[in-house]
Design brief:
This protein is an all-alpha fold and 438 residues long. It is built from 16 helices and 2 strands.
């Protein structure tokens, strides 16, 4: 018997989704500036790249614990302003404050810089889960892929604003007392101000009580361990297989990402200034195709869309491998090296955002209101776990076999993810979550 119930559309939800996306926009502003300039600030005091790299893993280490914990705590928080909003209105301004002060601390001492880096990571990772879980609380399950596309588009735009716009302000000299004209300052406090503005807009214009949930579920406080037991113990293992799939595709992605710039300089012989353009191609594709990828999944199904995208990513990565073998020798012009590589990275970004846009909504579709944050936290636990374990593996492969092995390894990870996604049977827009029994 066919389902004749009319499907919801994004009409009427775009403004709400845009406002919710402001939280994701703040992360897109801070993250690229953090990744680019914190190593530079640390380099003023620390000569060892290994030590700097260790400090730079703090965000991933905090994320793997704090995001799941605070996502789960927010599930069980019930206040007059909602369950996610207390965390958003507290931790986002604190993140902005710490972020804005970082370049000033870098002028003062290593100890103060480390304290602010530590504080920033605690605040930022504590709010990330509640910020992301706010969307499925409010937006109906049928249209979460489209809504996630809007949010991912805002994240992509924020990355472009941060890396192309705000980053240029680091060249502007600010007249500081006792120091005179000083550069490498302005982008951080300005980004902090934008984060505070975004938090205030979220607080005043997004009302959690208007969300997509029933009254019983809104009052229910499900123990965290009971929720985890329910997720991993239910007979249908779809949630488990989605989590294993995303672990492998993130291992592939996080294995490639840290070495793309280095590959561009050392193998493709590009300039240091152009080394970031490969990652930029991914960001541009991310911003362009996030919304269309959600619409495609709404029409053809999330599982099918993700599996097709994984096959396409596999193909693109193998083409990059072929390019690394055939277009990097002597006598090959710079344009012949770079233009096909940038084009392939753009395609990689297009299919990558298709996977990311639709995988989160698949998990949310399997959750109910009482454990939405736990599903969100599990997503981040597995993705952050991949970001910790992938770079050492791919770094060793490069040392042993050269840069080409980087792309073959990532392609293999995508095929493993493709296999596990074949076992997923739930998470489509028309599926209903299985509520937890008492």
């Amino acid at each position: 018997m066919t389902d004749t119930k009319p499907r919801k559309s994004m009409k009427g939800y775009y403004l709400t989704t845009f406002l919710i996306g402001l939280g994701f926009f703040t992360m897109g502003l801070m993250d690229p500036l953090y990744d680019t300039y914190i190593p530079i600030f640390l380099g003023r005091y620390i000569e060892s790249n290994a030590v700097i790299g260790t400090i730079m893993t703090l965000d991933n280490m905090f994320a793997i614990f704090l995001i799941p914990i605070f996502s789960a705590i927010s599930d069980r928080t019930h206040t007059r302003i909602g369950r996610r909003m207390p965390f958003i209105i507290t931790f986002l301004p604190l993140s902005a404050f710490a972020f804005g002060l970082i370049p000033f601390s870098a002028l003062s001492s290593l100890a103060l810089l480390i304290i602010l880096i530590f504080g920033l990571n605690v605040f930022k990772q504590s709010v990330r889960g509640p910020v992301v879980a706010l969307m499925p609380d409010i937006i109906p399950g049928e249209i979460r892929s489209e809504a996630n596309g809007v949010i991912n588009t805002m994240g992509g735009i924020a990355t472009i604003v941060g890396t192309i716009g705000l980053a240029q302000l680091m060249n502007v000299k600010v007249n500081l007392p006792s120091r005179g004209p000083t550069d490498n300052i302005l982008a951080f406090p300005l980004a902090g101000i934008l984060v505070v503005i975004a938090a205030l807009l979220l607080f005043f214009f997004v009302k959690e009580k208007n969300g997509n949930h029933d009254e019983r579920a809104s009052r229910e406080k499900v123990p965290i361990l009971k929720s985890l037991k329910h997720i991993f113990g239910e007979q249908d293992k779809s949630a488990f297989f989605v989590l294993v799939s995303l672990l492998f595709w993130f291992i592939g992605y996080q294995g490639v990402l840290p070495f793309v710039g280095k590959y561009s300089v050392e193998v493709l012989k590009t300039s240091s200034g152009s080394a970031a353009l490969a990652a930029g191609m991914v960001g541009i594709a991310y911003a362009i195709f996030a919304i269309p990828s959600g619409l495609i999944a709404h029409r053809h199904g999330r599982k099918k869309t993700i599996r097709v995208a994984l096959i396409c990513i596999f193909t693109v990565l193998m083409l990059i491998f072929v390019h690394s073998v055939t277009f990097t020798g002597e006598g090959v012009s710079q344009m012949t090296r770079m233009i096909p590589f940038w084009a392939l990275m753009f395609l990689f970004g297009m299919f990558w955002v298709t996977v990311i846009t639709n995988s989160f909504p698949m998990l949310w579709q399997m959750a109910d209101y009482s454990n939405m944050g736990i599903y969100t936290g599990l997503y981040y636990f597995f993705s952050q776990l991949a970001s910790i374990i992938a770079p050492p593996i791919t770094g060793a492969l490069i040392d042993l076999f050269g840069y080409g092995s980087l792309f073959v390894f990532a392609a293999a990870c995508m095929m493993v993810a493709f296999y596990f996604m074949s076992k997923v049977t739930r998470g489509e827009p028309h599926d209903d979550a299985k509520p937890m029994t008492a």
